[in-house]
Structure formats: structure tokens, C-alpha cells
Amino acid sequence: MKAAQIKNNIVVQIIVGSSDWANEKIGGTWIDISELSIGLGFTYNQDSNTFTAPQPYPSWTLIDNVWKAPKPYPNDGSFYDWDEENQKWVQIELK
Question: Would you list the DSSP string of 5-52?
């Protein structure tokens, strides 16, 4: 079991242990988490009990709790990185 410490709705610490233990021994606001994909800097939404990753680029939009680029990721088997300045995917050369 893992627990995330929340300050101002942001994950600031993650431990292996329960939120009950952390609240008693460490103090602060702790929430039990089961998702492995939650990390530091994620935003916690108490109403839906969900976590949202930090926005990767200013142009990306949050849709169904997932950040989406303005253009879809190419589906050709190659690897790409987002070029924010030019608003496009740039192929990565693997060596």
C-alpha cells in the first residue's frame, strides 16, 4: 500500500504505508493510493478522488483527465517528442 501527502491539492510526498499510519506518525493530509502512475506534482481532485499529472506543455488540453497534444501522436511505429515552439511532433532518432 502507498500513501500520498497532499498540500494545497498537490502531491508533495509518496510513501510505502497507509494514510492512517502517515497521518498518525508524520502528520498532514495523506490519502491511500493504489495507482503506480501517481507522482510528485500531481493535482488531487477531492470531488472525484482522482489525480491529474502536471500539464506537460502550455498548448496541451486536459480531456477526460488525460493531457492531449493539439495534434495526434503519429501512428507509424516511430518515436516522437513534442516541439512546443512549432506545435508539431518531431521524430526521435534512436541510436
Answer: EEETTEEEEEEES-HHHHHHHT-S-EEEE--TT--TTPEEETTTTEEE
Residue-range definition of the domain harbouring residue 70: 61-91
Q: Which three cell numbers stand for residue 4?
A: 500520498
Residues across the chain: 95
pLDDT in tens, 3-26: 999 999 999 999 999 999 999 999
Are both 10 and 42 inside the same structural domain?
yes
Q: How does DSSP classify residue 1?
A: -
Q: Are residues 65 and 33 in the same domain?
A: no
Q: pTM to 2 decimals? A: 0.78
Residue type present at position 37: S
